[in-house]
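Why this split exists: single-chain examples teach little about how molecules sit against one another. For that reason, every record in the complexes split bundles all components of an assembly together and asks for one structure covering all of them. Below is a record exactly as it appears in the raw files.
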Amino acid sequence: MSDHRPTGIKRWLYTTNHKDIGTMYLWFSFIMFLTGGAMAMVIRAELYQPGLQFVEPGFFNQMTTMHGLIMVFGAVMPSMVGLANWLIPMQIGAPDMALPRMNNWSFWILPFAFTLLLSSLFMEGGAPNFGWTFYAPLSTTYAPPSTDFFILGVHMMGISSIMGAINVIVTIFNMRAPGMTLMKMPLFVWTWLITAFLLIMVMPVLAGVVTMMLTDRHFGTAFFDAAGGGDPVMFQHIFWFFGHPEVYIMVLPAFGVVSEIIPAFSRKKLFGYSSMVYATASIALLSFIVWAHHMFAVGMPVAGELFFMIATMLIAVPTGVKVFNWIATMWQGSLTFETPMLFSIAFVILFTIGGFSGVMLAMAPVDFQYHDTYFVVAHFHYVLFPGAIFGTTAAVYYWFPKWTGKMYNETIGKWHFWLSMVFVNLTFFPMHFSGLAGMPRRIPDYNMMFADYNMWASIGAFGLGLTQVFFFVTIIMAIRNGKKADEKQWDGATGLEWDAMPTPAPYHSFSTPPKVD
Amino acid sequence: MTEQAQENKKLIRRLIGIVGGMFLFAFALVPLYNVFCDITGINGKTRGQALYQNVDIDKSRVVTVEFLTNINRGMPWKFESRLRSIDVHPGELNEVIFYAKNTSKFDIVGQSVPSVSPGKAALYLNKTECFCFDQQTLLAGEEIEMPMKFFIDADIPEDITRLTLSYQLFNITDSVYAESVGTK
């Protein structure tokens, strides 16, 4: 079969191929990951010692803001969309995504969106400096002029994500191979289907809230301005109505990834497939009624605090189901510990630690102490770095042989894992302690009593940053002159992409639908 | 294949419907939020003008009401309460005088926005007369004494023995001027 495609830059600009677009998404997210990571290095360098050493407090605030925005919208979300593009058609037996042109468009919006956002760093008044949560009135009355670039950038990212999500839903609903019923779909497809629904439900709310900011700033409305009858606390309600489902958007696809990898290297079927599906769906549903646990300290009535506290704790139940299912899958399996498996096991352990600190934060009475401290920073970095990012990393190592037909260097992969594992804990574990002792977030200077914790965290962060170079090197080496991968690299792997497709995966996935039994 | 394309179209239309609906929902949250706060009295928002009729006075209880005044950015007025706090019996009608002075060289329109803490006490604070119901226009250098009459509902929960009524004063000259130009 001949593949008609333009060559050179035109191949990438005009492509409607799900694999090309997936590749671009993944590389884009990796570039953003390094960009946001560089900002984290600035933050950790400044926090290495108490006092002000390297940057002005104003610039420090820009760094924390941009680091958060870029990691959330530029690194984690596009990496998940990249995996979806690569894997969903292969896993459900489809020739491509359902809407290939829209797919191209939704990717190519992103570089422009992030150019807008990053250009604000070079503007007069500096980049946005109000934290990635952009609370009003910091982001309206007191914000730098570049905030409008941020607003436009968020609009564009939102459009891109919504189009990506629509594409995923249409593909999964209408393009499955005959016989591939919903309850036969691989879990990665399931988690992405649920994620896509979350995306189309909450990204428009994000678009709404930044639109309100824009009209408050320039067109005389007063959504968040008490002088005109508005309410700044309302900003937090609307933002977190988006913001809480957003955290599941970032991590659910990673749940799907490890639910594929752990059975493969345990050489067992996934334990409790249907309970995994239902648990994911209930996590997604619950995520809509827990938003105010991010704002226990605004002065809610006790009844409200109790409601959001209990609803939040309920999420621990389906999450616990998933964790126990992963463990039960490994139980009495014939385990081997290749790089993807190592990342997946670390995911289960470290994500659970992040889950536990989440339950602590969910308790309204104690949250008053933890609120806006490094404990919160420790919590969400534990669920995002070893959660979302280890998940993506595991996925790349696991499917790389399938995608390219080449094998990465297992030794360097394992180095990448073990160094990441050590440094991720060295970076984020001490933050629990400094947070419990009262160190506030987003402040460039701190009390002497936090000096040791911060020094460890900074050393860990520099190590963690450098370690990601191993990832880059492994991937480049494997692409350039990796050994030829076996037809089925992992003997425990299951699914259409392994069983019904040659290695490397052909440019067009399934021209004729595969047989599903 | 065309059948598939048609099905895709149908599904896309529905999904775009959800997207549009959720975008509108974000804006609908604004009035919903206000209605919710009005009904429950959370967020410390007081209600509009109340009537003082057939109110029972509970002499056995005393509630301390404290007054706070704040000036928003860009508001060159002096603004204070003549009383820092007052002890009242629930049901009793009280009057407190607030004082404001325009210390600038311009005529300015001010609007004060009340807020009650703890939030749930807002439902039980009834105002029969308040400067916050209207805008105040003070000419350059002008000063004014503004009365505020209120009573505490006798149903106020036992555990509230002290509440704070705070007023934030905003400069709304620009928006008032813009409106008057717009209506001409």
